[in-house]
Amino acid sequence: MRVWRPQAFLAFLSVARAQPAPYPNNSYPIVNATNPGGLDNAISPPFYPSPWIDGSGGWDDAYQRAKQFVSQLTLLEKVNLTTGTGWMSDACVGNVGSIPRLGFPGLCLQDSPLGIRFADYVSAFPAGGTIAASWDRGEFYRRGYQIGAEMREKGIDVMLGPVVGPLGRNPKGGRNWEGFSPDPVLSGIAVAQSVKGIQDAGVIACTKHYIANEQEHFRSPGNFEDQGFVDALSSNIDDKTMHELYLWPFADAVRAGTGAIMCSYNKINNSQGCQNSYIQNYLLKGELGFQGFILSDWDAQHSGVASTLAGLDMTMPGDTDFNSGLSFWGPNLTLSIINGTVPQWRLDDAAVRIMAAYYYTNRDKAAVPVNFNSWSTDTYGYEHMHGQAGYTLINEHVDVRQEHGMSIRLAAARSTVLLKNTGVLPLTGFEKFTAVFGDDATENPLGPNGCPDHGCDNGTLGMGWGSGTAWFPYLVTPLEAIKNEVLRNNRVVQSVTNNWAYSQITALAKQATVSIVFVNADSGEGYITVDGNAGDRRNLTFWQDGDELIRTVTASSNNTIVVIHSVGPVVIEEYKNNPNVTAIVWAGLPGEQSGNSIADVLYGRINPGGKTPFTWGKQASDFGPDLIYDPTNGALSPQDNFNEGVFIDYRYFDKNNATPTYEFGFGLSYTTFEYSDLKISKSSAGPYTPTTGQTIAAPTLGNHSTDPAQYQWPANFTYVRNYIYPYLNSTDLAEASKDPQYGVEVELPEGSTDGSPQPRIAAGGAPGGNPQLWDVLFTATATVTNTGKIAGEEIPQLYLSLGGPSDPKVVLRNFDRLSIQPGQSATFTADITRRDVSNWDPATQNWVISNYPKTVYVGGSSRNLPLSASLDLGGY
Ligand code: NOJ
After folding, report:
1. How far is 773 from 389, CA to CA, in rounded Å?
2. Strand pairing of 228-230 and 222-224?
3. 97: CA distance to ligand 1 center in Å?
4. Which one of 111, 164, 299 would you pick to mutate in the ligand 1 pocket, going by the greatest count of ligand atoms within 8 A of its CB?
5. Which pLDDT value is given to residue 107?
6. For 415, which of 25, 133, 689, 772 could close a Cys bridge (C-beta 3.0–4.6 Å)?
7. Catalytic amino acids?
8. Which residue has the higher pLDDT, 6 or 543?
9. What is the per-residue pLDDT for 2?
């Protein structure tokens, strides 16, 4: 178990770890995918200098305005823009300093990906991993827009979401539910639509956690009660897997214009995420042409100069360790600029990137003053909570919810997945005796927000735990909603919500004509442990003795409907095969309208159309490599070798011929669908051309004095305790640095301070990567017919086989959600892009279309693909 707070290392001049010599000819030999054994102690090659923003891909206007703004700033003001003010120093979970001279109030950064954390009068939306089950671009966008609109009205500048890291390598990963799906294409489409929605509402989206943050255990360096000091885990990934799996949805987020990206706690190939020059400089800002800013996860910055040169643009929450009063940046950044260690263009670039995101999302027009305070629900209190300073009006209790509750109800119902139905569903409401079972059907006795950051599993599960949560304005329970249905028709409804009251459960189950059992499985962020689960799940069984509950009910009731609220898959093979289980419904983490949403589905007002965004395995071991729960490398970084490569979730099951309980993409409806008539048309896009040429030189905006006297504390300054300011404590720089090693020569990575024009990256060229990757090479159409008796929604899915010996059997590439009347047909139309048919080639550092034959498949799930056609790649 982790004892909270990682070590703080101040060494602002330290250059992280010794970097190996750069590789010749720009070849970055990250371990070859065909040599899985080779990932042990993988290294991350250096890449410098950190690319500067160029305004490409629709960012030019924002870029120009940002340059103009930053040109007016003093050095201290630039530093203020990049450095957080410290944990709990201001109203939001993260805040950067203000620029009073220009009337700029600073920036407010706030969790979470599913609504506003630590605020009253806000909505609690379905979690990312739940909305993913809607497979509906409109739902993704609308949810993003509505969360963004709520953030905007509370005065938030940067929303700390959406999430595509973790992707969901293993279903036990504690925070998988914050993201969308272990499939990169479903995640990529969901994140792109979310980013657009959030930013159209006038708030900067911060896509996180970059990258390979696939488990909670050992995500940060720290001292553990039973294990002593253990350094941060290293996710060791080969280049092909990086591109074809984990980076893929980040590319989509960048292409959609995400204004910010949060670097993650973990190491990647043994280099700490927020100072990893390869993943930040080369992949994100170079190849993906990211125009916005990289901000650190909270205390994920572990160095000053090293992280600056490796591309970090903003440090959060600004202090080295919560409330240490010290910062790797702040005064140390000021100092490293005036003593010439960090070139001014790098700081200018960081500031311009931050302001470009601000203008790109129209924050200059959309901003309202912050009107809540994360640290108190009181109306009056301290503006600077940690420093206990500035007693004032801190919470105006602005109700920002509008009519979002109605969309939330519908979105959660449309994301509900019907896994099994022998015909009992939909219910009529006229069932003679309805019995409801399970603690998961009812209220948390401590209140819907009674456990800090939802760190408990009491009552119905509407979201997981940790920073990825929001406060419920209310939580409609399943029991309330079901009672309403039944009482409307004057029938009988009773419940037992104590999961261990076996005799009462049995007695009630015997009387019932229909039994509805609510069970759940929870997980969350690693700083909270619930029932022995330190963030990550320890197993894939139900919580609160849910398995025993189902067994007890089904022993006495032959008409049992199992409703699951869970963060991901649970082992349910037994219930699939149990004839007394007449239906299984996965409702995910539905948010505030939980009861209403599930009642809409159970009673047939909404015909379920959701499809599972992950595979349900028969046992935990079917999912491949387990998480690392114990240190594997002494006090050094546990080495987490992603030896399975691109084979996670359904790709892993397919490769191993393992039969899942329910496959990825599966979901039933109250009607039925048939597929026919696949046609492929080919475009005239032509061959791919790599990006060539050079960037401009790094712009330097304005001058600054190198005289330390200019950067001392202003006279008569009222200092707030532990607040991070940009000023120096002394005109003696060694003294100001507080670093006993100050002045000791350190070798900076080669090229890291070079602001001259740089070669452009072949696979790059615009936000998201080389624009030709999105050329549409083919368009597929197919007919989907509703062969049942009621209207329904079907999600046709398009998969590809890329044909090579190291390719997955099939990979998802596109989908749609069609509403079809009984007896009618609709046309599914799906584009196939160049990226869709390509593989990443580590040797040429680019996407290539292999010579292997490629086949398109269309159908209703990853294992139900009745239509197929081969692709003619000639000319591409
Ligand atoms: C740490 C979490 O990893 C991140 O997702 C969150 O945004 C920050 N804490 C701020 O709460």
Report:
1. 53
2. antiparallel
3. 19
4. 111
5. 98
6. 133
7. 297
8. 543
9. 35
Residue closest via CA to ligand 1's atom 3 equals 297
Domain termination site, one of 569, 597, 614: 614
Residue 22 has pLDDT above 60, yes or no: no
Phi, psi at 372, each rounded to 5°: -140, 175
Pocket test for ligand 1, best of 163, 262, 274 (most atoms within 8 A of CB): 262
Mean pLDDT along residues 228-251: 96
Question: Closest Cα partner for 163 from 190, 125, 139?
Answer: 190
The verdict on residue 746 lying in a domain is no
Same domain, 556 and 682: no
Q: Indicate whether 624 pLDDT > 60.
A: yes
Residue 39 pLDDT:
86
Quick one: 681 and 556 in the same domain? no
Where does the pLDDT of residue 34 fall: very low under 50, low under 70, confident under 90, or very high at 90 and above?
very low
Q: Are 572 and 681 contained in the same domain?
A: no
Containing 184, the helix (H) or strand (E) segment is: helix 184-200
Cα of 469 vs centre of ligand 1, distance in Å, is: 10
What is the model's pLDDT at position 363?
97
- Structural domain span for residue 854: 675-686+774-870
Flag whether 483 is in a domain: yes
Among 5, 156, 298, residue to substitute to test ligand 1 (most atoms within 8 Å of Cβ):
298
CATH number at residue 562: 3.40.50.1700
Q: Is residue 169 assigned to a domain?
A: no
Ligand 1 atom nearest 112 alpha carbon: 7
Looking at the CA of residue 219, tell me the nearest atom of ligand 1: 3
Atom of ligand 1 nearest to the CA of 94: 10
- 476 with 610, same domain: the answer is yes
Cα(93) to centroid of ligand 1, in Å? 9
- The dihedral region occupied by 573, where left means phi > 0, alpha psi between -120 and 50, and beta the remainder, is alpha
Distance from the alpha carbon of residue 684 to the mean position of ligand 1, in angstroms: 45
Residues 544 and 439 in one domain: yes
**pLDDT band for position 29 (cuts 50, 70, 90):** very low
Whose Cα sits closest to atom 6 in ligand 1?
A: 467
Tell me which residues have their CB closer than 6 angstroms to ligand 1.
93, 111, 160, 208, 297-298, 467
Q: How far is the CA of 102 from the centre of ligand 1 (A)?
A: 30
- Is 518 among the domain residues? yes
Cα(467) to ligand 1 centroid in Å equals 6
Q: What is the mean pLDDT of residues 256-278?
A: 97
Which residue's CA lies nearest to atom 1 of ligand 1? 298
Please name the residue that has the structure tokens 């691109």.
646
- 598 alpha carbon to ligand 1 midpoint, in Å? 30
The span from the CA of 641 to the CA of 639, in Å, is: 6
CA distance 470 to 128: 13
Looking at the structure, do residues 601 and 681 belong to the same domain, yes or no? no
Cis peptide before 426 (omega within 30 of 0): yes
Ligand 1 pocket test target in 90, 110, 160, 215 with most atoms within 8 Å of CB: 160
DSSP, collapsed to helix, strand or coil, labels residue 77 as helix
Record the tokens describing residue 333, joined without a space.
């950044």
Could you report the per-residue pLDDT of 704-736, keeping only the tens digit for each? 999 999 999 999 999 999 999 999 999 999 999
CA distances from 388 to 41, 89, 385, 721 (A): 46, 9, 5, 8
Question: Where among 572, 593, 614 does a domain terminate?
Answer: 614
Note the pTM of the prediction, 2 decimals. 0.96
Total count of domains within the chain: 2
pLDDT score recorded for residue 826? 98
Query: From the alpha carbon of 117, which atom of ligand 1 is closest?
Result: 11
Task: Give yes or no for residue 8 having a pLDDT over 70.
Answer: no
Is the bond preceding 209 in cis, omega lying within 30 degrees of 0? yes
Same domain flag for 465 and 591: yes
Give the C-alpha separation, 810 to 862, whole Å. Answer: 8
Going by alpha carbons, the residue nearest to atom 4 of ligand 1 is 297
608 and 472 within one domain: yes
Supply the pLDDT for residue 556.
98
Structure tokens at 227: 């294990």
Mean of per-residue pLDDT scores for the chain: 95
Atom 9 (ligand 1): residue with closest C-alpha? 298
Query: Which residue's CA lies nearest to atom 8 of ligand 1?
Result: 298
The pLDDT assigned to 835 comes to 98
